[in-house]
Amino acid sequence: MHRICLSLQTAGYQLTLVGRKQKDSLPLPDRPYAQKRLNCFFQAGKFFYIEYQLRLFFFLLFQQFDILCAVDLDSLPAGHAAARLKGKRLVFDAHEYFEEMPEVVRRPKIRAIWAWIARHYIPKVDLAYTVCQSLADLFEEQHGQPFGVIRNLPLAQPKAQPAVRYPENGPLILIYQGMLNEGRGLEELLAALADFSPQEVQLWLLGKGDKMASLQEQAQSLNLGEQLKFWGFLPPEELQKITPQAHLGLNLLKHQGQSYYFSLANKFFDYVQAEKPSLNMAFPEYQRHLAEYEVALLLEELSPKAISRAIRRLLDEPQLYQQLQANCRLAKQDWLWEKEAQKLLTYYEAL
Fold first, then answer.
1. pLDDT class for 319, splitting at 50, 70, 90?
2. Do domains 2-153+337-349 and 172-331 have the same CATH topology?
3. Counting beta carbons within 10 angstroms of the beta carbon of residue 137, is it exposed (0 to 12), middle (13 to 18) or buried (19 or more)?
4. Quick one: how far is CA 137 from the chain centroid?
5. Which residue among 6, 47, 95, 100 has the highest number of C-beta atoms inside a 10 angstrom radius?
């Protein structure tokens, strides 16, 4: 959200970013726009969502604003109620296909509730946009509401250090940045890592999540030792320093619902900005972007064997890695937030 808020603030809008405070929330960083965190007694489950809607609604009710942007379905009911009571414009920013998220798909009753919220509220917004063309097409068909596309592209980064080249001597370092959660292909990744020696391949996991303990146990059972390093959570500025030191970015997902299938992860572009070829699933958006710049390898299936085969190919074909990295250097000049922000401003000016 920082890029969106910063671009709008810089263009002359006065922004307030509203979220909720969690038990492990870090202190709010200094930003050029206002920030507010709501305190909730409940932290998860149906009571949390009920409490959050009420707290968000009453907070918004006593705020002055001309445009209200609801980010994802979990803020849309309260946002819709507050915006309509005050006669203000309502924007919907869909970062997720909410009712198709893995933790929702396997719970039919919960999924039905989120699907009803989407059908009921999305057609009533004044402006809607999402993170990729696949989701925009899908939402337009479902709800009869035009959707724009604002991709989560990175800001251009000053080149503090040169990106590492193909390792002539030493291991190929794989890097995963993001949540260590279900459906991210991490178990399959660790199993594939066991096919290589520490001198051939090493893996850095940058992040934390529900699967960290079980992944540590799996690593111990596979005797991965020095091949695997858990970095824990790192702020964006630290990620920007560490990512260029690795060789291959990882962005693996199980096909657990359409939310993952139609996703376009931030990390895909972050790897490109760091001049890192990456390994991704052969999902529609990655196929679409690789047709423009071939910066990655795609997997047709998520399995240890498929992952191992792709890594082995890069070890055996250094010229392939070098070509992918050269394409990253071209793509990073094009896939920039500074360009995408111009579309965002056009959308808001039309309101």
1. very high
2. yes
3. middle
4. 19
5. 100
Under a CB-based contact definition with an 8 Å cutoff, are residues 78 and 53 in contact?
Answer: yes
Structurally, at CATH architecture level, domain 2-153+337-349 sits in 3-Layer(aba) Sandwich (3.40)
Report how far residue 198's alpha carbon sits from residue 119's, in angstroms, rounded to the nearest whole number.
51
Q: Which ranges constitute the DSSP H helices of 150-253?
A: 186-193, 212-221, 236-242
Confidence class for position 102, pLDDT limits 50, 70, 90: confident
Q: What is the average pLDDT across 135-162?
A: 90
- Candidates 223, 183, 224; CA nearest to 204 is 224
Alpha-carbon distance of 86 to 81, in angstroms, equals: 9
**For the chain, what are the domain ranges?**
2-153+337-349, 172-331
Secondary structure of residue 199 in the 3-state scheme: coil
Rounded Cα–Cα distance for residues 227 and 173 (Å): 9
Q: Are strands 172-177 and 34-39 parallel, antiparallel or unpaired?
A: unpaired
The token duo for 115 is 């699907």
Asked whether the CA dihedral 37, 42, 45, 50 is positive or negative, the reply is: negative
Pairing of strands 172-177, 201-206: parallel
Domain 172-331 grouped into CATH 3.40.50.2000: yes
Return the H-helix or E-strand segment holding 344.
helix 337-349
Name every residue whose Cβ is closer than 8 Å to that of residue 1 and which is 6 or more positions away in sequence. 17, 71
CB atoms inside a 10 Å sphere around CB 70: 25
Helices assigned H by DSSP within 169-303: 186-193, 212-221, 236-242, 258-261, 266-273, 284-290
- Residue type at 239? L
- 3-state class of 274 per DSSP? coil
